[in-house]
Design goal:
The structure holds 2 protein chains of 2 kinds. By secondary structure, chain A is an alpha/beta fold. Chain A has 7 helices and 8 strands, in the order E-H-H-H-E-H-E-H-E-E-E-E-H-H-E. In chain A, the strands form 2 sheets. Chain A has a 4-stranded parallel beta sheet with strand order 1-2-3-4. Chain A has a 3-stranded antiparallel beta sheet with strand order 5-6-7, with no helix packed on it. The longest helix of chain B is centred in the N-terminal third of the chain and has 17 residues. The termini of chain B are far apart. Chain B contains 14 helices and 18 strands. In chain B, the strands form 5 sheets. A 5-stranded parallel beta sheet of chain B has the order 4-3-2-5-6, with helices on one face. The chains are: A alpha/beta, B alpha/beta. The interface between A and B is large, with 56 and 68 residues.
């Protein structure tokens, strides 16, 4: 990578307790990280500009462990991996949405974010205290709990490895066209 | 049970029948990285322990988003990628050729039956050549560079059948906007969209590229047109490849089937801030404009520029708008130049820029101030896409863009020329 001189990086405080950052449908990657910041690759530096212009308080106030909750088609648009990286840099580890755009979903898994599907997020409010029990597949927000879908089986290995880089590091070569199980 | 075009391609490349829903580690025939997503892909390749790229012949590097370099950071990214290309023996087209997707098509880097990945969401455009082509992120690309293969979940398909003849000044962009409005921004999520029917068969390659390009705007993983005479004719001087039959079976199973008739289609406009928020041009006619952009991988080909010039005629563009015209590649620029279109647009008051992504990148140049309104032939009108999050972007065809640039407000091209 080019030796950029990093001017500023975000420091992340632990959320205690974690809160929900609620978004609507069709949140696109241009909102998550606008095009003018795409020469940046450091997650914590990207995080300074997450949702810049559309929801400025996110970059200022999001804390480690906060949970992003959205409606349908979260992350639609560009293939820019800067989008999940910016969210990761802001301290988000889990995103719960009714559905995800395909490229964002893969990118999120690959960089070690956990995208989880929840059939109906409409009852979840912005700012609510929340916790995700990934083992039990449940999001608890406010006083209610919401069941979460599983990551498709072929991606679980990647999640378990901590991302695609870690998964791939141990591999010398891959067998092409080895079919694996059906999913989704 | 028959197979979709996508199932056919994966089955052929994998050597055994593959069905939608199955996950395969499939060989990647070609991979493209550009100046925005490339540096991170290279970093990920290295973090994965990559030393030599599996198939340097199959990789294409080029720069199109920030060219010529618009910042020191962009210049450094370019240097970094040039060094990687040289070290790995990868073809580097640098900033010479134009917008990645147009260049991939015109250099013949995508052909029927091939599996192509690009670290850019509009990679789905190469389905116009009968390839299965899809956009991926940088980490997936790092993996593809290291192994020459990638995990794919073979997608279900949506079959789109199009019939009828386009009315005057209505074309492929109006069709794909209408389809996007109908199917919705996630209506084809995780699916391949197969475009078929007499209208697609009668469409030139430029129009097919416009349609396939926007499959992603419906959440599509790919957009494809089965190869026919037009496809093989296009590839004739670009690839040494003997034509072979490739099409979906008539009894293929589709997740969704849609039919459209373009006979009465009006010019379409996508209004801010969603691509699937599509209306007839009449509903937004009269909207004052600050900027008009004619270009991009969606609509920056010679055919698009010629349509815009036809509508323009010998008029001038309104002094109320900034008009930016960007041919999508060096080849397209030369065609426009030789046909006198560059002169025509320049005389009319436009800035004709060298091939690149331009305002559609939202970070290089041609940015919008808060409160400004742009009309664009590109593919996305997301909030902040072309600059300020307080600006508005409308999307349309080259004909509508030209007519609107003449009047300084959104205009039905049938009223102008």
């Amino acid at each position: 990578m080019p030796g950029r001189k990093t001017v500023q990086k975000r420091t992340i405080a632990m959320a205690n307790p974690p809160r929900v950052w609620k978004f609507g449908n069709d949140v696109d990657t241009d909102q998550i990280i606008p095009g003018r910041f795409l020469t940046i690759y450091d997650p914590r530096e990207l995080a300074l500009h997450a949702f810049e212009g559309t929801r400025d308080e996110f970059a200022r106030l999001a804390k480690e462990g906060d949970i992003l909750v959205a409606g349908r088609n979260f992350g639609c648009g560009s293939s820019r991996e800067h989008a999940p990286l910016a969210l990761k840099g802001a301290g988000i580890r889990v995103i719960v949405a009714e559905s995800f755009a395909r490229i964002f979903y893969r990118n999120a898994v690959n960089v070690g974010l956990l995208p989880l599907v929840c059939t109906d997020t409409s009852g979840i409010s912005d700012g609510e205290e929340a916790a995700v029990d990934t083992g039990g597949g449940v999001l608890v927000a406010g006083s209610r709990s919401y069941p979460l879908g599983e990551v498709p089986r072929f991606l679980q290995e990647i999640v378990a490895a901590g991302g695609l880089v870690e998964y791939a590091r141990g591999l010398e070569e891959v067998m092409t066209c080895q079919k694996t199980t059906r999913s989704r | 049970m028959g197979q979709t075009l996508t199932e056919k391609i994966f089955s052929a490349r994998c050597g055994s029948p593959v069905r939608a829903g199955e996950v395969v580690m499939a060989p990647v025939d070609r991979a493209m990285i550009h100046d925005i997503t490339g540096p991170l892909a290279i970093q990920k390749f290295r973090e994965m322990g990559g030393i030599r790229v599996a198939d340097p012949e199959g990789v294409v590097i080029l720069f199109d988003h920030q060219v010529p370099a618009d910042s020191i950071e962009a210049a450094q990214n370019h240097v970094f990628m040039r060094m990687f290309a040289e070290e790995q023996g990868i073809r580097n087209l640098d900033l010479r050729e134009g917008v990645c997707h147009q260049v991939m098509m015109e250099k013949g880097f995508a052909a029927p039956g091939e599996i192509v990945v690009g670290a850019d969401s509009h990679t789905c455009m190469y389905g116009a050549a009968g390839a299965f082509a899809t956009g991926i992120g940088s980490t997936d690309m790092g993996f593809a560079l290291k192994f020459g293969a990638l995990y794919f979940r073979v997608p279900e398909s949506t079959r789109v059948e199009v019939s009828g003849t386009f009315p005057r000044r209505v074309g492929p962009k109006d069709l794909i906007l209408a389809i996007t409005g109908d199917i919705g921004a996630d209506g084809a999520a995780y699916r391949a969209i197969e475009f078929a029917g007499e209208t697609i068969r009668g469409m030139n390659m430029a129009g097919r590229m416009t349609c396939c390009n926007m499959a992603i705007e419906m959440g599509g993983k790919a957009g494809l047109v089965a190869p026919d005479r037009a496809t093989w004719e296009y590839l004739k001087d670009r690839r040494q490849m003997k034509p072979f039959p490739l099409d979906a079976d008539t009894d293929a199973v589709y997740a969704d089937r849609r039919a459209y008739d373009v006979s009465d289609l009006a010019p379409q406009v996508a209004v801010p801030h969603n691509v699937d928020h599509v209306v007839d041009v009449g509903e937004v006619a009269g909207t004052p404009l600050d900027q008009v952009f004619i270009g991009s991988c969606t609509n920056g080909r010679f055919e698009d520029l010629r349509e815009a010039a036809d509508v323009l005629g010998d008029r001038s563009f309104s002094e109320k708008v900034r008009v930016i015209v960007i041919p999508s590649s060096r080849d397209e620029y030369l065609k426009a130049l030789r046909a006198g279109l560059v002169e025509r647009f320049t005389v009319a008051g436009a800035l004709v820029e060298a091939p690149c992504c331009g305002p559609c990148m939202g970070g290089a140049f041609g940015l919008l101030a808060p409160g400004e309104v742009s009309l664009s032939t590109s593919n996305r009108n997301f909030r902040g896409r072309q600059g300020s999050a307080e600006a508005k972007v409308y999307l349309c065809s080259p004909a509508t863009a030209a007519a609107s640039a003449v009047r300084g407000e959104i205009t039905d091209p049938r009223e102008v020329g």
